[in-house]
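Severity: low
Component: inverse-folding endpoint
Summary: output formatting inconsistent between runs
Steps to reproduce: submit the following C-alpha cells with default settings.
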C-alpha cells in the first residue's frame, strides 16, 4: 500500500513539475530588432510588442528575456533548442514542425512598398512590380504572392536600413517592408523627405511568439494565448495603448 501511495505521489509530482520549473526560471526568446515593435535601447528591451508580452507573462507569473541576433540566426537557435522560442514571427507550415504557436497572435503588421520620393511609381498589386528590382530583408516573408512571384527581381540584405541606402543610391527600384518599421527607420535616418510610401498595402500578417517543442511548453502557449486574448478585450488594453502613444502606422492589438 505504501509503495502504491509513493508511486502515485511521484507520478503527480512529475506531472506538475513543469509548471514549477518554468515559474522558477526565465524564458529566453531569440529575435532580431524590429523597432518600434521590439528593440533594445541602452541594453534595455523596449517596444509595443515587448511591453504587451511582458504584461501577459506577468499575469502568468513568468519572466522572459529577448536575445537580439540576425533573424536567420534566431530561427536556427530556436530550431536547435538553444533558446525557448522566437519572438515576433509569422506562422508557417514549415515552422509548425518545430514550434508551438499560441492561438492568439501578438498583433498584426502591414507590408508596403517604399520608393524614392520623386518616383511616380504606384503599387497596384504584384503585377505592377513587373521588371522592378525590389529590396527585401533576409529571412522575412511578404505573403506568398510576393514571395513566389517571378515578375520582378528580389535583392536581399540584412536590414531595411541597408535597403533604404541602396534605394537612394539607385541600386534598387523599390523596397518592401513593414510599414511601421520602415517609418521608424526613415525617421531615425532623417529620410522622410526623400522616401515615400505607396498607399496600397502588399500584405497584412499576424506575428506570434513561437515556443520550441519542449514538454510543458504547449500548456504555457495555451495559457499565454488565453491571457493575451482576455487582455486585448479589456479596458486595460486601451489604457495601455494610450500610454504607449503608438504611431498611426501601427495596427492596435486591442479588440
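Observed output (run 2 of 3):
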Amino acid at each position: 500500500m505504501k509503495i502504491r501511495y509513493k508511486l502515485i505521489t511521484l507520478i503527480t509530482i512529475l506531472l506538475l513539475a513543469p509548471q514549477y520549473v518554468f515559474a522558477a526560471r526565465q524564458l529566453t526568446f531569440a529575435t532580431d530588432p524590429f523597432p518600434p515593435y521590439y528593440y533594445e535601447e541602452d541594453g534595455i528591451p523596449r517596444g509595443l510588442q515587448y511591453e504587451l508580452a511582458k504584461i501577459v507573462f506577468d499575469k502568468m507569473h513568468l519572466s522572459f528575456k529577448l536575445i537580439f541576433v540576425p533573424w536567420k540566426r534566431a530561427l536556427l537557435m530556436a530550431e536547435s533548442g538553444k533558446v525557448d522560442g522566437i519572438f515576433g514571427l509569422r506562422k508557417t507550415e514549415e515552422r509548425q514542425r518545430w514550434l508551438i504557436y499560441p492561438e492568439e497572435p501578438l498583433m498584426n503588421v502591414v507590408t508596403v512598398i517604399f520608393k524614392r520620393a520623386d518616383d511616380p511609381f504606384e503599387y497596384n498589386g504584384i503585377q505592377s512590380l513587373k521588371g522592378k528590382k525590389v529590396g527585401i530583408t533576409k529571412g522575412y516573408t511578404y505573403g506568398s504572392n510576393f514571395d513566389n512571384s517571378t515578375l520582378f527581381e528580389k535583392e536581399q540584405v540584412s536590414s531595411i536600413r541597408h535597403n533604404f541606402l541602396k534605394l537612394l543610391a539607385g541600386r534598387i527600384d523599390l523596397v518592401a517592408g513593414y510599414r511601421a518599421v520602415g517609418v521608424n527607420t526613415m525617421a531615425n535616418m532623417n529620410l522622410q523627405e526623400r522616401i515615400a510610401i505607396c498607399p496600397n498595402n502588399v500584405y497584412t500578417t499576424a506575428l506570434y511568439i513561437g515556443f520550441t517543442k519542449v514538454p510543458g511548453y504547449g500548456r504555457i502557449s495555451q495559457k499565454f494565448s488565453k491571457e493575451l486574448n482576455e487582455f486585448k478585450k479589456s479596458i486595460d488594453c486601451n489604457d495601455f495603448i494610450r500610454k504607449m502613444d503608438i504611431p498611426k502606422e501601427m495596427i492596435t492589438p486591442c479588440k
